Amino acid sequence: MAKKRNGYSLIEILLVLALLSGAAFTFLVHIPLQMEERRLELSAAVLLQDLREVQQTALAENVWYKIKFSVYTGEYKIFRQGEFIRKVNLQNGVHFANSPSDLTFRPTGTPDTGLTVMLASGDLERNVIVAPVMGRIRME
């Protein structure tokens, strides 16, 4: 007659604990990297949207708009014909990887110059580019 088995053996319990700890370790290592990437993507998307909105508003209102970048504080400010409109802060952990010059959109919607704004977070980088002639705005 076979013995009736109650419970689990020590080896089975240790194997389950090893698998769970391995999964938890993998999860905890990847979460900070994904958060860093998401913050960078969000900051780049907000900047891209703000640039496009300012360009379209300058064209619609037939006035000039200026965006001033502050590398040290991690923010940029939007002005309408010299009057302050709003300030936008980059996400925590995201900073300007270059020193972008101020950008003015003329009443025609064209920029006064071409511009590349480099955003970085850790080892990750995103570029928001304003073409100098027609003012096409894109993200790389």
Can you summarize this structure?
By secondary structure, the protein is α+β, with helices and mostly antiparallel strands.
Verbal overview:
The chain is α+β, with helices and mostly antiparallel strands and 140 residues long. The protein is built from one helix and eight strands. A hairpin with a 4-residue loop joins strand 1 and strand 2 (75-80). The chain is rod-shaped, with a radius of gyration of 25 Å. The model has no long low-confidence stretch (mean pLDDT 90).
Count the DSSP helices: 1
Shape: rod-shaped
Task: Please indicate the percent range of residues in DSSP E strands (runs of 2 or more).
Answer: 25-35%
Q: Structural class given helices, strands, pairing?
A: alpha+beta
User: How widely separated are the two ends?
Assistant: 72 Å
Helix content: 25-40%
> How large, in whole angstroms, is the Cα Rg?
25 Å
Could you report the average pLDDT, rounded to the nearest whole number? 90
- Give the helices and strands as they follow along the chain: HEEEEEEEE
Please mark out the parts with pLDDT under 50 across 5 or more consecutive residues, or reply none.
Answer: none
- The strand line-up of the biggest sheet is 3-2-1-5
The major beta sheet can be summarized as: 4 strands, antiparallel
Topology, number of strands? 8
